[in-house]
Amino acid sequence: MTAGATALLLALIHFWGGPFAPQPSLEQTVAETAVSIRDATIAALKGEPAPVPEPKPKGYDLDQILSLVTAVLGGAAVILAVLGIAFKEPRRVAGGAAVLGAGAIAFQFAAFALGAIVFVILMVPVLGALGAG
User: Fold this and answer.
1) 56 lies in some domain
2) Which residue, 15, 73, 80, 90, has fewest beta-carbon neighbours within 10 Å?
């Protein structure tokens, strides 16, 4: 249960307190993505090869480390819950561990999915404006 509770707390802290590593602004990200899509589309229409994106810097930042630790702790809580049930531990304790671990993983996934949906909603009018210009 401790692993699951820690994972859920990390997910919540990272969601409401983060991001902890420097991030580009939302406007900058949307603008760079829109320009990159426009350039790739124009290159494809001209029959030219698509521009190669810049490689990401190697290494992990604090946000990636927190996400990874949260997922590992959540997974460990679920695995330990299954082992607890197999070793005839009280079902409430094992069930609580499984719920906490799965909840932490699901919370991270839901936060990522919500961010992706918002990003797409913001990209549609920007791409429409680029096409009209």
Assistant:
1) no
2) 90
pTM across the whole model: 0.72
Residues in the chain: 133
Lookup: tokens for 133: 């210009």
Domain count of the chain? 1
Of 10, 14, 7, nearest to 112 by C-alpha is 14
The residue assigned the tokens 């249960």 is 1
Confidence check: pLDDT of 133 > 60 = no
Q: Which helix (H) or strand (E) holds 12?
A: helix 2-17
Answer yes or no: are the C-beta atoms of 52 and 79 closer than 8 Å: no
Place of tokens 């603008």: 31
At 18-29, the pLDDT tens digits run 788 777 777 787
